[in-house]
Amino acid sequence: MNKTLKQVLAVALALGLLIYALRGMPLTSLLDQLRQAAPAWIALTTLTMGLQTVLRALRWRMLLQGLGHQPSTGRALSAMLAGSASGLVIPGSGELLRCTLLQRSDNVPITESVGSIITERLVDLLATAVFLTVTLLLESGRLLAYAQTYLQLPTWLSALSAGQWVGVGVAGLMLAAVTYLGLRYLLDRGLGARLNDRLRLRERFEGFRRGLLSIRRVDNPALYWMITGTIHALSLVVLASLFRALPITAKLPLSASLTTFALTSMGSLTIPTQANIGSYHFLASRGLLAYGVPLLTGTIWATFSHAVITLVNLLFSALGFVAALRFLKKPIESPPVEQA
């Protein structure tokens, strides 16, 4: 029930932000710009995203090899894309399908592959932080103006007195203390041991820990980090190509790609909407105001670029899902039982 509620809230938030971002935008203006879109730049965007996808599969394979598994790049790629396709339809299902397919094809334990995926996310978070830092150094003036204009605290929040802020802090600490004491009480009554016996939590946790620490066993760490940097640098190429694809944004400086990447990446972390719908449109269009782009123009470009990125991802994901269907026909192999 809680998972379903979370998915519904994510979709509702995405639709709300999308409606707010697109309000007042005439459909004719959007269609006119779509007709003028340059096919060559869209093709470059597609090729760049394809290269990104292959590099992500190679990087994931490096983590799995560090755990002693040897899936081919093709199987890792098709499992990753099939998971992406599933995640577009059912939020949160992508990682599970991705790991299940690799278990069927290469007998990789799900706990280890899940741990490796979380490691991927943490590495991407670190890389995003690096790009955010570079953006702040190079475009600090523009970002500061953006933050002052569009990220102001609500009136009721800014009106809180110092005593009220102290009260909020004390209430937060009390909630944390009650939660901690409650967990300790349950563990002291043996709940942890019963759960471990029933769910084999210790074994699952060990597999998860191995996957999470897989980055320490990568054979070539320098290559791993180079691939990670290239993946994120290609995101800038995608945005720059999409700026050039429309006449209304063709003359924007390359720094606009860096700023847009920083804002939309930060939005995907802080506003978890499905496929970044709504949050991408809102942040990208408002960020372009710092470059003198009217809000309507920025909204048109944000709608266009998000549509292209989503459609390309959907195309690649569908191809990967078709390629991975053969894994579903293969029964899951149980790991061999060691003889005493």
From TrEMBL:
GO terms for cellular component: plasma membrane. Keywords: Cell membrane, Membrane, Transmembrane, Transmembrane helix. This is Flippase-like domain-containing protein. It is a multi-pass membrane protein. The chain crosses the membrane at residues 40-58, 125-145, 165-187, 222-246, 308-328. The keyword Hydrolase does not apply. The lineage of its organism: Bacteria, Pseudomonadati, Bacteroidota, Cytophagia, Cytophagales. Its main location: membrane. It is found in: Cell membrane. InterPro entries: L-PG_synthase/AglD.
